[in-house]
Amino acid sequence: MEACSKKFISYLNPPGEAVEIPYEGGVSLCAYFVRAPFPVARQPVLICMGGLDSIKEEMWFMQAGAGRRAGPAPAAAPA
Q1: Which is nearest to 64 in space by CA: 48, 53, 42?
Q2: Domain hosting residue 39, numbered range
Q3: What residues have CB less than 8 Å from 7, skipping those under 6 apart?
């Protein structure tokens, strides 16, 4: 599923990318970052976190896709 999601976000306009968000204790969270389609250098970021039974791929369809249309650039990460 992760390979399919990476391919899907690469076709968005602007294209998305897989990123790592630094977290405490030297740990990082894997996430998908998709810049909002507005021509500004700096944008607010919406970080979508699910529960223990959620995956970052479903966060795109539940939260991040709608957030991108509203303005902030979403990053969907696992819980």
Answers
A1: 48
A2: 2-77
A3: none
